[in-house]
Amino acid sequence: METNPIPVVTVQTAPYDDQRPGTSGLRRKTTVFESKRNYLQNYIQSVLSSIDLRDRQGCTMVVGSDGRYFSRTAIEVIVQMAAANGIGRLVIGHNGILSTPAVSCIIRKIKAIGGIILTASHSPGGPAGDFGIKFNVANGGPSPDTVTDKIYQVSRTLEEYAICPDLRIDLSRLGRQDFDLENKFKPFRVEIVDSVEVYLNMLRGIFDFNAIKGLLTGPNQLKIRIDAMNGVMGPYVRRILCDELGAPANSAVNCVPLEDFGGQRPNPSLTYASSLVESMKGGDFGLGAAFDADGDRYMILGQNGFFVNPSDSVAVMAANLSCIPYFRQMGLRGFARSMPTSTALDRVAKALKVALYETPTGWRFFGNLMDSGRCSLCGEESFGTGSDHIREKDGLWSVLVWLSIMAARKQGVEEIVKDHWAKLGRNYFCRFDYEGVDPRAAFYMMRDLEAVISDKAFTSQKFAVGSNVYSVEKADNFEYIDPVDGTVARNQGLRIIFSDASRLIFRLSGTGSGAGATIRIYAESYERDPERQNRETQAVLGPLIAIALKISDIHERTGRRGPTVIT
User: Fold this and answer.
1) Residue 513 has pLDDT above 90, yes or no
2) What is the pTM assigned to this prediction?
């Protein structure tokens, strides 16, 4: 305990008008947080002030980061400001490290009022990279719109913030650190906790660890290759997959969290996890996986580099949940997917006779469904899958689901996926990302495209591309009415649905760092015939993409010759 009480200081500041949180909190170039006066402090004060004063006094919050550059500096400020704003206890990961799923897990376990996660997900790190601040609420999930709106409103009128500038903590020392503050009756407590332990204990209660261990160590040992991409997941992969489940230590690569992720973009995709893709092509490994910086997104590869599309991944999981003790015990309540995600999951829901919910993009929309007992499994096409065990997408949990399925079915990744297609059909799917587009050009392109598809004549239109003819059945700007509380989310993406169940989706992404807009185009085509399920995705979807480029005029409107990334 400190001998002299630490003073609480009120600092005058001026508001910023650009601190509206996006789909995953506030993301900006790191230089914005470093160079703009009080930019970090203003936003943290806005987050803390969004919590009702009565709830805030003496409450517990969780703090973690993906280890990216500027995280330690930001954690020190968060601790100093949390103390000054009446928070009673902070639970922080060792060395500031906590995966996003672990934060959600801990919030729920200790019944914290919420948590602050420092991450920009799969965006680059380092001084020239991106930085983000995400606030999760008491259910462990991302802030709903009511909370993010409140944070933004506070940020626009903020005139001062409270801080204890003399308060210092040691992130490397596990255990409790107590501090006496001026004019506070109770000491302020910081607990530095093992980053992995609580999360690992949760997983032990979900999976049959013996079955997975048998797969990874038995006579027909499955060799795996896991790439943590120098993000937060290194300690989790080593402790859980290697130490606990018996995978050889050399199964895990890039497991040291680095502030710049080793100069690479921590994005678990074919484009950015190319070294994993190359190592899988040799055929030595039966399963490959990569994780993003904060551990909520993942990619699955089979032997010889067989790529599992994220939309297929959640569908295959859904069809095989009986392999997992947790779901055998809890039963299946329903499935949910974001609107752009392929309809492969819908077909599983229909086959299993459970409800299917189609939500806007953003994990926060799944929270109400899970909290009300409507949803057991949910997923997004952006490499995220999760269940009601927490309120976040969960990369390592997803890999353990795949290992459980492989152990139960005694099949490889490719065989499992192709069996699934043979049974329920294949949804060919791809996404084109146009990143860093001029925001005005993006806005006007989307506005004009909505006008085109909203015209009554459009719904009777036919598009001929080569020998393919696509008849428009429905076109709209997606709107979601939450079945739990009736709240309405409008303008969630432009949809064109064709009579053969093919779809085109156009969306402006809400997860950027402020450096231009990102336009996403999604194309999907359903194939029931097993003889036609092994074609190249781009060949199948080429005609649909041609229609998308023509009606949006995206290349002319943005000055681009093609997408930045194709997934």
Assistant:
1) no
2) 0.97
